Amino acid sequence: MSPALMQAMIEQARWVATDAAFDELCASARDATMVALDTEFERTDTFYPKLALVQFCIGEQIVLVDPLAISDPTPLRELLADAGTRKVLHACSEDVEVLASWCGARPASLFDTQIAAAFCGSRYGIGYRDLVADAFAVTLDKDETRSNWLQRPLSPAQMRYAALDVALLLPLACRQIEQLEACGRLGWLEEECGRLVLEVLDRPGPEQAWRNVKRASSLESRGLAALMALAAWREELARSLDRPRGWLVKDEHLLQIASELPADLRDLDGQGVPPAVIRRWGDELQDIIDRTRELSPSELPHPLPPPMTRADGERLKQFRKRAQHHARDLGLAEELLARKRLLEPLFAPAAVLDDCPDALKGWRWEILGPEIEGLLNEVPQ
Description:
The protein has helices spanning 3-11, 19-31, 74-81, 93-103, 113-119, 128-136, 156-167, 169-182, 186-201, 221-241, 245-248, 251-260, 275-293, 310-330, 334-338, 340-343, 363-376, and strands at residues 14-16, 34-42, 50-58, 61-65, 86-89, 110-112. It is an alpha/beta fold and 381 residues long.
């Protein structure tokens, strides 16, 4: 794309702020084989992100949609669910989440240019600006990254920044599709994008919130039962109040309460748990503590397995090296194939094939399957 064409697209970007125009836009997008999308949102003091802007690029037309003025988001939900139109985004996990929150969307035919870049050999997690600079020798502005996107009217600088974020997505995706088709990896990319949607939208409910609290493995059975109940309570409260979890009770305070299980929560006042937490949530927290203290041994969860041993850590390190070697041979970003988080479950105590994470199946299994089978059939010395 020439600089002159890109500048013309930006200058002619259209603003949509009525339901009728929005409906027409989404219908037009569904007629296209491929559409570029991006979002701007705020999430500083809420649990759920606040959608502030949706950017479209269809062909050579950029459209900026004001979701604050749209009363019916159904047309976008239908567009995103339409498998006949490829939706091109970059690093889209947060976009998928905020769009789902706004219109209940579950995107089909998603194409993430950041993931595609990793399949094409670029570094893992490359940013849009670096990717555009590498592909088109174009330097994009960064000045509005942290601006207030909920203000109206948006400034000219914000409008330009928002338009630039989608102006080059389609030509970038076209290049990547050619590369992926040439090496037979387009199906891999589509599989990975489908899995990303599942991971973002099918996250466990409040009863699993404790898994995100660091150092949970330090607790014995009763403390772990308390943490499970406390984290579920906080998750439900954060959702109902639409406030960040840490604004209510921080992880370290949940862990302290679960570890000590005081007969009177006020005993922890000044001992780490903030007085404001005890004043506001003390009765509810104390009720959870008391109920946990009354659980019979048979009602308690098993303690979590201890951290990985040094020997298992060394086995993981060696396995990652082999996976990284495969990635280099294939011209993939190493982290795409061999992220530590992906491989760690294989080294859990008594791990078996049924424990193999879904993310290691599919295209990754084509590369690592025989080695994973061999690993899980090993008898550690």
